[in-house]
Amino acid sequence: MNRKTLVLAAAIGLLAPVLAGCGDTEGGSGDGDAIVVGTTDRFTVSKDEPAPVDPAYAYDVGTWNILRQTVQTLLIQPRGDGAPVPEAAESCGFTDSGNERYSCTLREGLKFSNGDPITAADVKYSLDRALAIEADSAVFALLSSIDTIETQGDREVIFHLKSADATFPYKLSTPVAGIVPEDSYDKDKLRDGFDIDGSGPYTFEPEVKDGELVRATYVKNPSYKGSLKVGHDRIEMLSYESAEAMGEALEGNEIDIMTRGMSPEQITKLANDSDDTVDLVESPGLEIRYLVFNTDAPSVENKAVRQAMARIINRSELVAKVYGSQAEPLYSLVPATVTGHSNAFFNLYGDPDISKARELLEKAGITTPVKMTLHYTTDHYGPATKAEFEQLSKQLNDSGLFDTDIEGAGWNTFKTAGQEGKFDVYGMGWFPDYPDADNFLAPFLDEDNFLNSPYANTEIRKKLIPETRRQADRLAAVNSMNQIQDIVAEDVPVLPLWQGKQYVAAHDNVTGTAYLLNSSSTLQLWELGRGVSG
Question: Chief location of this protein (predicted)?
Fold first, then answer.
């Protein structure tokens, strides 16, 4: 019987494009050298996105997972859920009662991978740079609470914040706060291409063809000094056009591990397969999927249209038909298991009700059926995304109140079009930067939000988000968090759909797979090793 490993939440804490010949790899599971990891993620350099792996620009799960292996941060998220722990820093903490002054002391002897020493000035330079560039990915917003950065000697960095921010330690654990050398990263512009210089546990060797990253090799960094223990000297990552091709590569021993991008059918098959040489690891996850509305677009600018969609969409049916037991319906931006979660959308709209949706539209004077296109990405969230949008479209059309069609696009085009307001309605996924409710609210609703959404609510931005950040005890922030979720349910600038689980499939001679992904979908390649899994 296939061994299916369930990883509990307390124990858990992507890559490149199409290969011309995925079987032509070096170091598959048979040679005992590199551990080879497969994925369906793709990375390209383009005119619209010339610097995909610059820490001042990168802001998606795939590019962040490249940077987490290679660029060191002061703090890092621990194996299990919990507050960040020191990484490049020896110690960090608030030095005032108001959570507005935060100080870190660097470890002694830190070096970049080229051997150059790292000082407090390098930390200041790196974060000041990300704030100054203000890349259109809006990742700099994670650091927006910083007023000034002060250094004292070579090892102490002091952050003076504009206002109280109890989540600031989490933000220092994200790649935008990565420490980079000044001679490789210009102060006022992004670094184009796939080259990375840092001080993380691995160095990065990209193989690029026609602007696409076709192979990524991670080699143990001999200069690394931090909190992590590196389990294997060499990791390679390859990307496949489809989950099926990736699965065939695992069966053919061309790769050792499958990560992000497996299909629901594939996961079910692996869970029930009699092959005892492959382990399927299932763990709780904080990935969410949702619809985004361009609230300035004529088709959805009237709140009643968005509310009617919230009344009609049947999340339970959607999940059952497309994802089965691999996802759960979600009724708020904040997923279950995260402090501050509420079922705001269910509390307001209840079970799907077409008659109440009709009443909303009639009262608002909306002519039906309302015509619109639902947009989705074809190559970023897995092969089931199209089926998901077919179901969403069917549910809306079957109500008689909507006339929808669907349209897919590749991720690079899709992401830019959404941020530029070219879609009225489109589907997105979110993998949290850190496991706190703030990171499921502020990135969508605050100023400089990554969606570039025209929706703005003054109470959320000026009162409620600052209130939540003043509370070091996150339970004390729950009331303000719930108020934010109630406003979102009423205004529907976004519509949460479901929350997913995480899966890794690996040959049983690879160890560390239970820790390969933490609850925020952070890839932790340093956990992998060779041996006999237990």
Answer: other
